[in-house]
Amino acid sequence: MRCSRRTVLQGAAVGAGLLSAPWLRHAAFAAQRSPLVSLGSGQLAGYLDQGIEVFKGIRYGADTAQHRFMAPRPAESWSGIREALQFGPASLQANAREPASEDCLFLNVWTPACDTRQRPVMCYVHGGAYASGSGSSPLYDGVRLCQRGDVVVVTLNHRLSVFGYLSLQRLGDASFADSGNAGMLDLVLALRWVRDHIAAFGGDPRRVMLFGQSGGGAKIATLLAMPAAHGLLHRAATMSGQQLTASGPLHATQRAEAFLQALQLPPARLPEIRSIPADRLLAALSTADPFIERSSLYFGPVLDGRSLSRHPFYPDAPALSRSVPMIIGHTRDETRTLIGRPEPDSFTLTWEQLPARLARHMRVDIAPEIVVREYRAWYPTYSASDVFFAATTASRSWRAAVVEAELRAQQGTPVFAYQLDWPSPLEGGKFGAPHTHDIPLVFDNIASEGSLTGTGSEAQQVAEQMSAAFIAFARTGNPNHRGLPQWRPYTLPRRATLVFDSTTRLVDDPRGKERRLFEQVPFVQQGT
């Protein structure tokens, strides 16, 4: 297969200067051979990156601006060869750091070869809650996973924030019935594309693993409860991202009403929202949330009775996905970046300041004085800031992971729990093992822009362990491999958890005292 003249010229232009843009970071390709793949809908020309065939900006859905706040529509076929050399636009979002558009239903594929090998498929769902992000971060580049594990890697974009989760269902216009979960339905459409086309890229449509961090993990947890996604994913791995409950329809409607009020658009004129300029919609996102103190409007999946008829993990794990094994993991110091970066004085708290700061951030209704007393007894060497970060991690990020793991264990579905303890060396180690720390380790991309790991030998050791575990899980549904101690499933009451560190080890019920403290009070996911 040879490059066309057009492809070679475009490659020269990319090499001449466009590569400074982060979303084009890996767009250099070999002029000698342009990988070509034939799909039922048309042909795609990609490029080579270190021997891996890469196809970027593949359209899986039609332009959503043409059917705003409605379920997505599949992409149309095309004739001839379409170049797949650059990432497609991200969903429109506040403070976007890359090209963004309502026309955002694109995905990207990395593969060792477009042949008939039937490799496991590792499909990554990006984080950023339900409000930001895309599948084009350098941290998500799939080259090293493909090289290490002979797998196919997919990343994707979908509608976010108001474009994906504005619930207009109860406001009188039946055409908006799917508006509250449009972003989730985008993900379902992307998975259908994978089912129908990934074999052409050398992937196995019967071995599709979804993995995602933070909001990506939350989206995966939601998909596990959606009938439309049933049979489209065969393993699931959530990294510091859970979704126990969805927004109730009444709260979601009140948020929509607050948004419409900010637009000065009465419900009687609701159809006009289809033509309001997108920048006006983005500006209205700063409206105060009616339920979350000191927060702008929250938009996330909605219990709409259509695509989502039950909460993802309440009151139990969804029977619909009982056959899907899971990895559920978190980092030991999630909130050192989640809270510590926007509020840097959290690193210098006094004991007098601690209770009030805990009350604001724990997201559970428990007396902070009790929390402080218990933590000081358990960890006498901790500073006030150490207690703050440990307790906020245990009460929110980690708490939801524990609930999901326990419900899966009760269901009898294989679930493997991990905790990342290996700390970031940056800034003197002040961040510990923070939120997002596991992404470059799982992708084996520790040298990529945005990584907090550094490039030392210990970082590479942990990256090799974690990436190999996720590859093994994609291949067989079991993450064990030669480079790990035996990783046993999470069962009750043992709660076996693999702790990734400079010396990785299996630990029963790590931080059990903290777990028992916070399980005394109900946990309700923020925004729901």
Which terms summarize this structure?
single chain; 528 residues; alpha/beta; Rossmann fold; 2 domains; 14 helices; 29% helix
Topology:
Layout: H1 5-16, E1 36-39, E2 42-45, E3 47-49, E4 52-59, E5 81-83, E6 90-91, E7 100-101, E8 106-111, E9 119-125, H2 143-149, E10 152-156, H3 161-165, H4 182-197, E11 203-213, H5 215-223, E12 235-239, H6 249-262, H7 278-283, E13 326-331, H8 335-338, H9 354-361, H10 368-378, H11 384-411, E14 415-420, H12 438-443, H13 457-476, E15 496-500, E16 505-508, H14 512-518
Parallel strand pairs: 2-5, 6-7, 9-10, 9-11, 11-12, 12-13, 13-14, 14-15
Antiparallel strand pairs: 1-2, 3-4, 4-8, 8-10, 15-16
Helix pairs in contact: 9-11
Walkthrough of the structure:
The protein is an alpha/beta fold and 528 residues long. The chain has 2 domains: 5-239, Alpha/Beta hydrolase fold, catalytic domain (Rossmann fold, 3-Layer(aba) Sandwich); 330-432 and 468-518, no CATH class. The chain contains 14 helices and 16 strands. The protein has helices at 5-16, 143-149, 161-165, 182-197, 215-223, 249-262, 278-283, 335-338, 354-361, 368-378, 384-411, 438-443, 457-476, 512-518, and strands at residues 36-39, 42-45, 47-49, 52-59, 81-83, 90-91, 100-101, 106-111, 119-125, 152-156, 203-213, 235-239, 326-331, 415-420, 496-500, 505-508. The strands form 3 sheets. An 11-stranded mixed beta sheet has the order 3-4-8-10-9-11-12-13-14-15-16, sandwiched between helices. A 3-stranded mixed beta sheet has the order 1-2-5, with no helix packed on it. Strands 6-7 form a two-stranded parallel ribbon. Helix 9 packs parallel to helix 11. The longest helix is centred in the last third of the chain and has 28 residues, at 384-411. The radius of gyration is 23 Å and the shape is globular. It starts with a helix and ends in a 10-residue tail after the last helix. The model is unreliable at 1-32 (pLDDT under 50).
